[in-house]
# Entry
Amino acid sequence: MAAIVQTLSSTAAEEEEWRLRCDMAAVFRVSARLGWNEQIGNHNSLMLPGEKPTFLINPRGHLFQELTASSLIVCDLDGKVLRGKGELRKVAFYIHARIHLQKPSATCVVHVHPQYLTALSMLADPEITLSHHNNLILNDRLAIDNHGVAPADSHAEGDRLAVALGDKSILLMGGHGVTVIGPTVHEAFDECHQAERTAMYQVTAMSTGRPLRALPDSERRHWHGPWGDKVDSRMHLDAWRRILDRDEPDYAQ
# Structure
């Protein structure tokens, strides 16, 4: 276990940070299994409890499957690394810090390039159709950004992405990938997982060349509240953690 963790005393706050680190590390490992990340790119962040705003994030240069609870770094909203070994990738700073700053409800920010959502983002006119039962809850929570033309390289671009999210929790980024925000690690992860699975169904159905089913608009759930209030997001991540505890227990070190 890293020295930054070994030196912590057993206060409630420190125990809570360790619990959050383990959840984050689990999400990185599961994301790696699912092929969500772009080589050593992509990044997930989590605001930590405390008076000073700080966030947990993966350091630059690591594959998701390498990451552990103790290898994650803690940064402030100015991008300074306060604890941990490694540096903060610039594009990660411009996306994550600005979304955390502009949207206090975005406790967790997941930014990945999963195959099917990314494929939809590459279409000239990206659309998530109302064809699967999952769409009845997802579609009101999704925004599509067609104005990003290059990787984030400024505060202005990070602020633009925060604005593009609006009151949504999923941002399909044209020609890029997806960003999902949530009040907890498990909610952001589960919503991203649900969105990617639903995109997989849509892309697979589109590949047949036949028309997609159109579900009635009257059945939309119009839910903008916490994702976990409607689905078993905590149970989902806990189930994955049981698999990781068996197969990759080092994630929680």
